[in-house]
Specification:
Layout lengths: L2 H15 L9 H10 L7 E5 L4 H14 L4 E4 L11 E3 L2 E2 L2 H15 L6 H16 L3 E5 L16 E4 L7 H4 L3 H8 L8 E4 L6 H10 L2 E4 L5 E5 L2 E5 L4 E6 L7 H16 L7 H10 L7 E4 L3 E4 L5 H13 L6 E5 L7 H8 L5 E4 L10 H11 L4 E4 L3 H11 L5 E5 L2 H11 L4
Parallel strand pairs: 1-5, 1-6, 2-5, 6-7, 7-8, 13-17, 14-15, 14-17, 15-16
Antiparallel strand pairs: 2-3, 3-4, 9-10, 10-11, 12-13
Length: 423
């Protein structure tokens, strides 16, 4: 059996093994980590938050690599390949190394049941330890306090922002969710909050654990000028920086949070201004306002909650086209459809709904009915799969139009899989 098939088989086994896709809590995964003796001996940056995690991780990786450090990066979910989740020195870890790590976790877990994410998180840390990285950046999967990434004490923890998502696990208010996300903060260590209006419970929790809280707008600021921006913190300042390579005014805030973390780590991992400039310009995260086609333009964005949809709407407004904006949208059943559609309704001329390839998907016909209710008089068609919706939108589009596919990582992954070879 070749290695590629072995990795595929492992992933199938992991998807079907645990009775729950998500089971928050650290006791089970801690037992397996102890058996593996898997402890980082390098600086660790943990990145949590409702939106902006992937972009913030991308800035950190790009800047640290430009500074000459050997980086480890763990993110989720992936779009086309599981290997996207684990990167060392900017390169995806190969199938053979992942299989070896999975086998080690399997041997260590005994009778302990692990979720797909928990299994993968332990495997990623094993890869970073064995590769001898200089620094690792790890994205929180869900929440923070009880997420498997929170197993290890971060040298710097970042919360990018707090909004409503995953309420069934994290609570129904920003205050409740803020408390969960603040669970990644540690006593005596820098805790970066890039949310300009953080929940009171997040602030209170940071103080309760004795973290050194660094707040956007108070302890560090970002000021945008024509074509550049300035960053000022407690002990560092960088001026006339290039705007982030990823589009959207909100990306300055994500980049500012990354710079706050790097400034806090400067005594251990000094980073020069040249590396910051290079990293800001070169950083990219798949599925974040990513253009994959032209004439018509085709954009994919993983926006799947109201805050992310508002951010997407702002980038669309900042980047007008001569023609129309056409939407291909597919969402999961537990997401806030009304909030997402409301954020984008004024800028979209026509909608094609689809059913993402997930057992948790909202079917295309039901989603189409919701869009019709939310946007009376709109042109709405239920088109089946993301690929079918994209082709239907392409058939209706002119060269000056643009198509925006969004609503779920599953939707974007399916569109990328279908359209990328043609772009």
């Amino acid at each position: 059996m070749n290695v590629s098939r072995s990795l595929t088989d492992w992933l199938i086994r992991l998807e079907g093994r645990h009775p729950q896709q998500i089971e928050l809590g650290l006791e089970r995964v801690q037992r397996v980590a102890d058996a593996l003796a898997c402890e980082p001996h390098f600086p660790l940056i943990t990145v949590g938050g409702t939106n902006g995690k992937g972009s913030t991780c991308a800035y950190l990786e790009a800047i640290l690599r430009a500074a000459g450090y050997r980086t480890g990066l763990y993110t989720s979910p992936h779009l086309l390949r599981y290997n996207e989740r684990v990167r060392i020195a900017g390169r995806e870890v190969g199938d053979a190394a992942l299989v070896e790590a999975f086998e080690a976790v399997e041997a260590a877990r005994g009778d302990v049941s692990l979720t797909y994410f928990e299994f993968g998180t332990l495997a990623a840390m094993m890869q970073f330890v064995s590769a001898g990285v200089d620094v690792a950046v790890m994205e929180v999967g869900l929440g923070g306090r009880l997420d498997a990434v929170n197993l290890w004490d971060a040298d710097v923890a970042i919360v990018t922002g707090v909004d409503l998502d995953h309420q069934e696990y994290l609570g129904d208010t920003r205050e409740a969710i803020g408390y969960e996300k603040a669970g990644i903060f540690r006593a005596g260590r820098p805790a970066v909050c890039a949310d300009p209006d953080p929940p009171a419970r997040l602030i209170a929790q940071a103080h309760a654990v004795g973290a050194d809280l660094l707040r956007f707008g108070a302890d560090f600021v970002a000021e945008t000028h024509d074509g550049h921006w300035d960053w000022h913190g407690r002990n560092h300042a960088w001026t006339a920086l290039p705007l982030p390579g990823m589009r959207g005014a909100y990306q300055v805030r994500n980049a500012a949070g990354a710079l706050a973390a790097l400034a806090a780590l400067a005594p251990r991992l000094p980073v020069g201004e040249a590396a910051i400039r290079t990293g800001l310009a070169s950083a990219c995260a798949a599925g974040r306002f990513q253009q994959i086609g032209q004439r018509p333009d085709i954009i994919v964005d993983v926006a799947h909650n109201p805050e992310a949809a508002r951010a997407l709407a702002s980038v669309l407004a900042e980047s007008p086209v001569r023609g129309r904006t056409l939407a291909v949208v597919g969402m999961l059943a537990d997401k806030d459809v009304a909030g997402v559609i409301e954020a984008l309704r004024s800028g979209v001329a026509a909608w094609w709904t689809c059913t993402p390839p997930s057992p948790r998907a909202r079917d295309a016909a039901t989603l189409a009915d919701s869009v019709r209710d939310l946007v009376p008089g709109a042109v709405v068609q239920a088109a089946g799969s993301p690929a079918e919706a994209l082709e239907a939108a392409r058939s209706a589009a002119g060269e000056d139009d643009r198509i925006v596919a969004f609503g779920s990582f599953y939707t974007v992954a399916a569109v990328l899989d279908h359209a990328a070879p043609q772009s």
